[in-house]
Design a protein that fits this description.
single chain; alpha/beta; 2 helices; 38% strand; globular
Length: 133
């Protein structure tokens, strides 16, 4: 008999520990994530740089082979005030593809997003859950 959807057979995987983003230039990418986005820089390593995002680590790395040389998955950075974050990052030269906009209205909150590219051409997003009044 099969397990219900979402029911794990073993509790081995409980959370994401690290996300990797490809970079063409580690120094440039490190400056963008550290200085422009304000992420907490942990340490450099050969051809890599590591950042802390709560319990998650973000790794910037040069692609090891052509197979891994592609744009990253979209990372959605949670912010409390999406308009303020949008203005602050735009003032630092971040080029947004759009302005903050409503994605979905839930009974208790509205989900807002806006999309931009990092220094390496990867698409990123800001997202905010605005409480409904």
């Amino acid at each position: 008999m099969s397990k219900a959807m979402g029911e794990a057979t073993e509790p081995w995987i409980s959370k994401i520990g690290q996300i990797a983003i490809n970079a063409k230039d580690i120094d440039r990418a490190t400056a963008f994530y550290r200085d422009t986005l304000g992420l907490k820089f942990l340490f450099p390593a050969p051809k890599m740089a590591f950042f802390e995002l709560g319990e998650l680590m973000l790794m910037l790395s040069l692609p090891e082979t052509d197979e891994y040389d592609h744009a990253s998955s979209v990372l959605y950075f949670q912010v409390d005030d999406i308009e303020a974050a949008h203005l602050a990052l735009a003032s630092k030269g971040v080029e947004f593809r759009d302005t903050p906009h409503l994605i979905y209205s839930a009974p208790t909150h509205d989900l807002w997003m806006t999309f931009f590219r990092d220094s390496e051409g990867n698409t990123l997003a800001l997202q905010s859950h605005k409480p409904r009044r």
